[in-house]
Amino acid sequence: MAKFDANSTLKRLQNRYRLVVMNDDTYEEVVTFKLSRLSVYIVLSTIFVLLTGLTVALIVFTPLRMYIPGYGDVNATRELRELKVRTDSLENAMQYKDKYLENVKNVLQGNVTVNRDTTALDIPKPETIDD
Q1: Average pLDDT of the segment spanning 80-96
Q2: What residue numbers bound the domain in which 100 lies?
């Protein structure tokens, strides 16, 4: 099993490399960069952190946050609940009113059939206490 040596790993990260961009036709060097693995890692990590921070800031400080489920305005959510309750109660009131008007219409037209209960009730007589 290979031994882990922190010094060799650090040296490998600090080794310098040269990145050369050349013109393919004239073999002229256009740009030269001196890089190490550590510097590339630091630059890429910094870019990642900046992009993540900008994305979070864009979502938190702009109206885009309204498109995230569960992140809506608290007042808007409360108002929606109140409107739902009011709508339900208005629907019930309309149904009661429609049923009432239908019954009044039937009474005025004479379309009322009354079902009378003709069963005799067996009411017990009150008991009297004799002394």
Answers
A1: 95
A2: 73-110
